[in-house]
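=== RUN LOG ===
request id: a7f3
mode: sequence -> structure
chains: 1
length: 404
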Amino acid sequence: MPETFSYSARTAEGEKRSGTVQAENPERVAAILEEMRLIPIEIKPQKKDIRPVLFGFLRSRQYEDLILFTRNLSTLYKAGIPLLRALDTIKIGPANGYFNRTIERIRTDVQSGRSLSDAMGEHPELFSKIYIASIAAGEASGKLDEILDSLGYMLERDLDLNRQIKSALRYPIIVVCAIILAFAVLITFVIPRFIDFYSSMGAQLPAPTRIIIWVHHIVTTYWVAVVAILIAAALTLRKIYASSSGKLYFDTWFLSLPVFGDLIVKGNIARFSYMFHLLLKSGLPMVKSLELLSETVKNARLTEEIKVLSSSFKEGRELDGIKSRLQYFPEMGLQMIRIGLESGSIDSMLSEVALHYNKEVDYKSRHLASLVEPILTVVLGFFVLIVALAIFLPMWNLAQIFRG
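=== RESULT ===
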């Protein structure tokens, strides 16, 4: 199976180039670079990104540039401008920026006789498998202009979904960060001021106060060990998540989260339906489309369920018979796909499914603050209660001592 290698190289004129290439081994990468008339300096396997991803949306820093590139290429191609000239015309961002250098390499490959999809396949950090498969299908069917237009639309909707969810998460994240900051200030500045005072009075400190004093002692005395434990825990969790079983466990746990789990599922199903619609419109067979989609969905549990869906199509089984094996795939979405298959309008039905769940995500993301507010209220209330008991109970004990 091809791996992704990053490389540094120089042209015959001495100009430095860098990028990524998919190949079976470093020797094959060197051969590809030689075909591109580049002298390799360094070739190394690219590290896989194993950070937990809740929603599974594309997160490339060049995402907006990709949308702009796709829209520009679609406009120029539909206007009848030859592909090579169109690639030469399009400029995204800084003239010598990474994206423009990539476009230039794609143009060089196309000029040397390679197809556009093959040339894009050399840059998986920018063009996903679904993007490349759609372009290849568009080239084969002669509908590249329609496919580019659909790709631009899909990427824009995907970006909108991502932005909606990020915006919705902002409030809960701010509240949690405020609680953590308040606790840090309490431990660092407040606790040291009244520890000696209460101790000198001979008052019996209540349990909440003793717990906070104990935490203060651990953090201030053994802070190096605390930091080391936190780093070790983070690295351990990262390693567990990198394994297939660990990723499946955590991704299943993400889906079981209150409020957020439903948002994750519906966001992924909306994206799945958009991409499924696009691949079928491109002319790809249904089973091949599902195989591609299972490779691009980032949530491992949903990936497993899409594979179940794919196997049912391969074996010609009824979709109603697999409902018990789909714990998170929405039943409504499954029924709409079944109706689309029976009526021969699967393409338009997938578009309806995507539109429906996109509206669901939009509604829930807009009202996420009110949905999460009860949970945050309980967490914040518990924190305030502990702090209040830790500070005011010793004062009550001191009052009793003074009265005595």
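=== NOTES ===
The radius of gyration is 28 Å.
Strands lie at 3-10, 16-23, 39-45.
=== END ===
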